[in-house]
Write a structure and sequence with these properties.
This protein is an alpha/beta fold. The protein has helices at about 20-30, 45-50, 80-85, 95-100, 105-115, 130-135, 135-150, 175-190, 215, 235-245, and strands at about 5-10, 35-40, 55-60, 90, 120-125, 155-160, 200-205, 225. It has one domain (about 5-245): Aldolase class I (TIM Barrel, Alpha-Beta Barrel). The chain binds phosphoenolpyruvate.
Length: about 250
């Protein structure tokens, strides 16, 4: 069984004042029965690491470059994230794919770089509304998985995030979530890769809130959530964590 994971993606949100949210989160979950991951902006990573040392809270980046170092102004490498205190890195988020033209091949290269730096890649896949309405969801998710996940990885996390559900308040039906998560598990098993497909957490992401988390976590092959907006406040994220612990 995969270890359950509640992951928060702060996106481009958070100044020094928001570090108090991490203090509240660590205080609320001294001994959680699931993994808890916060991915703050890179500017807060090392300051957050100073506060989460010795606690159960893990930290991650939101992206990394595919090279370890070099002339890439404005980019952050996987070894830099690890050096700042990260254990994970989100890769291929739909906002990166849309805003920065990231392809499956680039996401795969970044995943390899992350693993080489000792980070666990959290690889995001998901269909647009047009693709869902055209009945292409499984084809798109399958293509993204095959293109974005290097078979040489020994450890990874998959996040299924329908693009149309991110930040919109819209959530797929329980049946739709179950169908895609079951499909992802089967695809992982079919890859014949270095990682253990049965132990790979598959997170759902897209408008997860304290009020809908329990029913989502009850779905087969949903091993946790990648949460945007509701991860910014410890009080909201704690409710989601509590639902995951109870699932
Ligand atoms: C996300 O950005 O990964 C996400 C799921 O956002 P939200 O929870 O705000 O929909």
């Amino acid at each position: 069984m995969p270890k359950k994971l509640a992951a928060g993606n702060w996106k481009m949100n958070g100044l020094a004042a928001e570090l108090s949210e991490i203090d509240a989160l660590t205080a609320a979950h001294p001994d959680p029965s699931c993994d808890i991951l916060i991915c703050p902006p890179a500017t807060l990573l090392s300051r957050m690491a100073d506060r989460t040392g010795g606690t159960a809270i893990k930290l991650g980046g939101q992206d990394c470059h595919e090279a370890a170092s070099g002339a890439h102004t404005g980019d952050v490498s996987a070894p830099m994230l690890a050096d700042a205190g990260a254990s994970h890195v989100i890769l291929g988020h739909s906002e990166r794919r849309a805003d920065h033209g990231e392809t499956d091949g680039l996401v795969s290269a970044k995943a390899g770089a992350a693993a080489a730096a000792g980070l666990v890649p959290v690889i995001c896949v998901g269909e647009t509304l047009e693709e869902r309405e055209a009945g292409e969801t499984l084809a798109i998710v399958g293509r993204q998985l095959r293109g974005s996940v290097p078979g040489a990885l020994s450890t990874l996390v998959i996040a299924y995030e329908p693009v149309w559900a991110i930040g919109t308040g819209k959530v797929p039906s329980i049946e739709e979530i179950g169908e895609v998560h079951g499909f992802i598990r089967a695809e992982l098993r079919g890859m014949g890769a270095a990682f253990d497909p049965g132990a790979t957490p598959i997170l759902y992401g897209g408008s997860v809130k304290p009020g809908n988390a329990a029913e989502i976590f009850a779905v087969a092959d949903v091993d946790g959530a990648l949460v945007g907006g509701a991860s910014l406040k410890a009080s909201d994220f704690s409710g989601i964590i509590a639902s995951l612990e109870a699932a």
